[in-house]
Amino acid sequence: MSLLDNGSSEIINPDTYFQTNTPPRTLGENENRVKEFVNKHNEAGRRIVLITSGGTTVPLENSTVRFIDNFSAGTRGATSAEYFLEMGYAVIFMHRQFSLQPYSRHYSHSKNCFLDFMELKSDGSIGVNSKYAPKMKAVLEKYQEFKKNETLLFLDFVTVADYLFLLRSVTRIMSALKEHAMYYLAAAVSDFFIPAQKMPQHKIQSDGGLTLTMDQVPKFLKPMVTNWVPCGFIVSFKLETDPALLVDKSRHALTRYGHQIVIANLLAIRKREVILITRDSEFQIKLTEDEIAENIEIESRIIPELTKRHDEWIRNADHVDM
Ligand code: 9Z3
């Protein structure tokens, strides 16, 4: 017996969603930052990728005390950003506040306290613990290079509404880049939400049990592909836990929205196996046991494959097929 009732199948359309929900306060300011970043790197002839990363929250109250969240730590997005930067892309990193970030990810959510990476020297000064120094030096060099080139822009969101408003704004600005922009949608976006007008203003009182009714989040990929960035190279992720559903659901998303690639991943093995699905192909990327033992990151295989396909997309004038 299921405890779930999926209720009405009616989904509000994206336009209605944007008309009836409140944009984040920082939206205008972030739009200006994106315009400046896009102009600068476009003039420099650099390709730009938008990466979305981390989970979105769904508030239960307008003055929010409680919210529903999901598991995503933003590992996929933060790791991918490093490989895109290495391939020469400028990166707009749209991430859940406090989720993992490129470069700092190697230390920020570590089981070690940051003080464990340091050591007191005999002369009283402090330095990096010699055990960690070689890796830290390599990470630091790359980090300083992108700082110098200003090729990484951070934008953050918390709620699913923040995410959707920001995504629409950023993609519309990037649409001027036409096929030179890539969109890499790795964030774990909530499927359900409570519309602002149906939420209580104040903290829900604990006078008994709580029953929630949630609406379905509109399918934003449709307007994104059709209206916001019609020429962009769009890669979305499909997450499932049931292997029997994964490929069919991914293919369904591809035909429903008409974008270029769906990367199918199963929660339990997402760090070692994914399938890149296009309209007429399936391409598995799977790390071997040896590669896993050597801490090879699967994103180091995914990103070069995508940039190769992005090259083809740019070369292909009519954009009919990959
Ligand atoms: C993914 O499938 C990502 O690979 C993960 C990465 C969220 C699994 P972590 O942050 O995990 O590294 O821990 N992202 C997309 C999930 C999603 O919400 N997809 C939507 C869907 O499945 C379509 S855009 O319907």
Automatic annotation (TrEMBL):
<feature type="domain" description="DNA/pantothenate metabolism flavoprotein C-terminal">
    <location>
        <begin position="48"/>
        <end position="102"/>
    </location>
</feature>
<feature type="region of interest" description="Disordered">
    <location>
        <begin position="1"/>
        <end position="28"/>
    </location>
</feature>
<feature type="compositionally biased region" description="Polar residues">
    <location>
        <begin position="1"/>
        <end position="24"/>
    </location>
</feature>
<dbReference type="InterPro" id="IPR035929">
    <property type="entry name" value="CoaB-like_sf"/>
</dbReference>
<dbReference type="GO" id="GO:0015937">
    <property type="term" value="P:coenzyme A biosynthetic process"/>
</dbReference>
<comment type="similarity">
    <text>Belongs to the PPC synthetase family.</text>
</comment>
<dbReference type="Pfam" id="PF04127">
    <property type="entry name" value="DFP"/>
</dbReference>
<dbReference type="GO" id="GO:0004632">
    <property type="term" value="F:phosphopantothenate--cysteine ligase activity"/>
</dbReference>
<protein>
    <submittedName>
        <fullName>DFP-domain-containing protein</fullName>
    </submittedName>
</protein>
<dbReference type="InterPro" id="IPR007085">
    <property type="entry name" value="DNA/pantothenate-metab_flavo_C"/>
</dbReference>
<feature type="domain" description="DNA/pantothenate metabolism flavoprotein C-terminal">
    <location>
        <begin position="172"/>
        <end position="280"/>
    </location>
</feature>
